[in-house]
Design a protein that fits this description.
With 276 residues, the protein is of the alpha+beta class. The chain has helices spanning 24-27, 46-59, 68-82, 114-119, 140-153, 195-206, 252-275, and strands at residues 8-11, 14-17, 30-39, 42-43, 86-96, 99-107, 121-127, 157-161, 166-170, 174-179, 182-185, 211-213, 216-217, 226-231, 235-242, 245-246. Strands 7, 8, 9, 10, 11, 12, 13, 14, 15 and 16 form a ten-stranded mixed β-sheet that branches. A six-stranded antiparallel β-sheet has the order 2-1-6-5-3-4. A hairpin with a 2-residue loop joins strand 5 (86-96) and strand 6 (99-107). Helix 6 (195-206) packs across helix 7 (252-275). It starts with 7 loop residues before the first strand and ends with a helix.
């Protein structure tokens, strides 16, 4: 199945027809990537995503294949060509046997429904951890294994558990636990620092919400009142179950964090529009 969604994509700064897209451009060799949410045709937290691309490239010992100006131009060109308004966009730097290419293209997005924000989603535990938490690299084998487990168990997200039975992060999200008015999330050095997570932590500081940076053991999660994930597509989304353990999805703090996050996202969109 072709990963490119829409009529066009950008290859090394040039607009190409989606008919020319080949998944091997992404999955052969080594790839680092970012997924950016597009709202009304404009990217959310664009600068943050490019900065994290640079962090990933540095962590993997790779060169940056495009910077802010080139990627901004690529997104504007693609958005004007395809006229996609509410969707996710993927930026990929691919390094394959001496050949280096950067791609910018739309991918099909599955955003939570209003019912899922209200009633929560199901999660599962999955024994795995990132080889290098600092870099966002494509691991097709791990992604496929998790995807099949999610399908089989009818779940939305997998919480990754390391060899010490500690929960670090989600397969495509960061995880927060709520107990006695305190939020708990893994230390920065053990997870991929999500853009949404970054702004949720900023909001917590601004609102004087206490956050303890520690990984919970799998045996501790049943004592938590609520659990939620943060990420580009889900934003701030509660779990109703993790395995057989049920959680409260009506904690007012979760909606407050989501609303304040959306406000910051809107500010970032205005900044992008002003810059071009």
């Amino acid at each position: 199945m072709n990963e490119c969604f829409g009529r066009s994509f950008i290859l090394n700064g040039e607009l190409r027809s989606a008919e020319e897209f080949n998944n091997s451009l992404v999955y052969e060799g080594d790839s680092i990537y970012e997924v950016v949410r597009i709202v009304r045709g404009n990217p959310v937290f664009f600068r943050d995503h490019v900065e994290r691309l640079a962090i990933s490239a540095n962590a993997e010992g790779k060169e940056m294949l495009a910077g802010l100006p080139q990627l901004r131009k690529a997104i504007i060109t693609l958005s004007r060509s395809d006229k996609q308004k509410e969707i996710n966009l993927k930026i990929v730097f691919n390094y394959n046997n001496g050949s280096c290419n950067y791609l910018v293209y739309f991918i099909e997005a599955a955003y939570p429904t209003s019912g899922q924000y209200r009633n929560g989603v199901r999660g599962i535990l999955f024994n795995a951890e990132r080889k290098n938490p600092e870099s966002k690299v494509i691991n097709h084998k791990l992604r496929s294994s998790i995807y099949h487990r999610l399908i089989i168990e009818g779940a939305y997200e997998a919480l990754l558990v390391n060899e010490n039975d500690l929960i670090t992060e989600g397969s495509r999200s960061n995880i927060f636990f709520a107990k006695d008015g305190i939020l708990m999330t893994a230390p920065d050095n053990l997870v991929l620092g999500g853009i949404t997570r970054k702004y949720i932590l900023d909001i917590c500081r601004e609102q004087n919400i206490r956050v303890d940076f520690r990984c919970l053991n799998t045996s501790e999660i049943g004592s938590c009142q609520s659990v939620f994930m943060t990420g580009t597509s889900p934003m701030v989304l509660p779990f109703n179950h993790i395995g057989n353990i049920a959680f409260d999805t009506s904690l007012p703090l979760i909606k407050t964090l989501r609303d304040l996050y959306i406000s910051k996202a809107e500010e970032s969109i205005k900044g992008f529009i002003v810059e071009y």
